[in-house]
Write a structure and sequence with these properties.
CATH topology of one domain: Tetracycline Repressor, domain 2
Keywords: DNA-binding, Repressor, Transcription, Transcription regulation
CATH architecture of one domain: Orthogonal Bundle
CATH superfamily of one domain: Tetracycline Repressor, domain 2
CATH class of one domain: Mainly Alpha
Distance between the termini: 55 Å
Structural class: mainly alpha
Organism: Pseudogulbenkiania ferrooxidans EGD-HP2
Protein name: TetR family transcriptional regulator
Pfam families: TetR_C_13, TetR_N
Shape: elongated
Length: 188
């Protein structure tokens, strides 16, 4: 996983994989069938571990605001953690590449679209529960947060530090705050 996270799909050679796994290329092909299949396994491992922060935040937090904020806090922590590659494996592994890798590029794009849809779904559920104003554009807000999440990955990959990335939380959360209904404080 770390080899693909560090170098991307195309940039990771079979020699890199042999070094990372400590087994011969013939055994890698026997176990996984292809570099692409191994890559898909690496992405699944990433998404079940470090890269699964967004799903955990959306599942565990009680309010939409807490879920969105935690998603960004955890993303920044994950993307800037020392001792591991910076940024997001799914965002940086292959946004473009050689023609023979179009299938991998399309698969990763579908993973990113799924993340965007999960944010939109979270916001739509919050709107149905009465957390968001009825006229809030949940699709636009979801797209905004997905773009921002992917941008945080690119910024981290480019060396922007956690403190600077956390500073964007105030304006990022302001967009959601404007769409939230006032909390019912129980007083009538």
């Amino acid at each position: 996983m770390l080899a693909f996270w560090t170098r991307g799909y195309e940039g990771t050679s079979m020699a890199n994989l042999v070094d990372a796994l400590g087994i011969a290329s013939a055994r890698i092909y026997a176990a996984f069938g292809s570099k692409e299949a191994l890559f898909r396994e690496a992405v699944a491992l990433y998404e079940s571990g470090q890269g699964g922060f967004a799903e955990r935040a959306m599942r565990q937090e009680k309010t939409v605001r807490a879920a969105i904020e935690r998603m960004f806090v955890d993303a920044i922590e994950t993307y800037t953690q020392t001792g591991q590659p910076q940024g997001c494996l799914v965002v940086s592994a292959a946004t473009s590449g050689a023609l023979e890798n179009d299938q991998v590029i399309a698969w990763l794009a579908s993973r990113r679209r799924q993340r965007t849809q999960s944010i939109i779904d979270l916001l739509a559920d919050a709107q149905r529960r009465g957390e968001l104003k009825p006229d809030a554009d949940v699709a636009a807000l979801g797209d905004f947060y997905a773009v921002l999440l992917h941008g945080v990955s690119v910024q981290a990959r480019d060396g922007v530090g956690a403190e600077r990335l956390r500073a964007m939380l105030v304006p990022a959360m302001a967009a959601l705050d404007a769409a939230l209904l006032p909390a019912d404080d129980g007083q009538a």
